[in-house]
Give the backbone structure.
Amino acid sequence: MVTAPPPAVAAGAPILSTRNLTIRYGGVPAVRGVDLEVPERRITAVIGPSGCGKSTLLRAFNRMNDFIEGVSMEGQVLYRGRDIHARGTDPVEVRLRIGMVFQKPNPFPKTIYQNVVWGPRINGYRGDLRALAEEALRRAALWDEVKDNLDRSGLALSGGQQQRLCIARALAMQPEVILLDEPCSALDPASTARIEDLLFELKERYTIVTVTHNMQQAARLSDFTAFLWQGELVEYGPTQEIFTRPREKRTEDYVTGKFG
Ligand code: ADP
């Protein structure tokens, strides 16, 4: 079990890193020259005002920007030291290792069970799908609520349950990293608290990177915080330092609510 906080951002090999990463939409930069190292089995929060490039940066970690027309990229994204854009790298393989959960819960219009096993099934999983589904649902803290109703539609669940189902769906792919883009912003406070508790448990096994514009959430939940502003990484460090002793004036102004 991982309990002690890491001594510094760069201690040990980062699982994900960016090198001088610039991402443009139709030539206009949304992320500018970002160097970031994401430590393994920790929660890293990406914060900053709307439009500062958080989602664009998050999508770069598993090549989800590939799906957006007009995107161009310079620099590198490394996963365990390997360039995920290197020739011969399969983006599908990258996304199997680095899963994503979106802002709005988006279960498929299928049963709870089908939602969880859909990815492993189309990827040719040869093990016991029932056992895999149970494990993923347990890890997503949803099993007890759905175990007698696995054939119910995923869409019949509450918003918070749907988001945990989407997390279970991501976990069933047996990823190492889970990227979350504002996973609680469509949820009520009780469901948000459950997701936060869940993420806290999941970091024992998984690396988590979450975008949030909720600063209290970043402060409560994350080990490291990256503050982006107008596409630039202004400051990155242990969350406690970012919120209590930021080095940069812009960080201080943002975390104390002076803008954003
Ligand atoms: P955030 O997640 O911090 O709100 P985004 O990464 O969504 O920021 O957006 C960063 C910048 O890139 C914004 O100026 C936004 O308008 C622009 N942008 C985002 N997505 C697209 C897109 N698909 N096409 C063109 N511009 C985009």
Q: What stands out?
A: The two ends are 37 Å apart (CA to CA). Residues 25, 30, 48, 50-56, 68 surround adenosine-5'-diphosphate (CB under 6 Å). The chain is about 35% helix and 25% strand. Residues 1-11 have pLDDT under 50 and may be disordered.
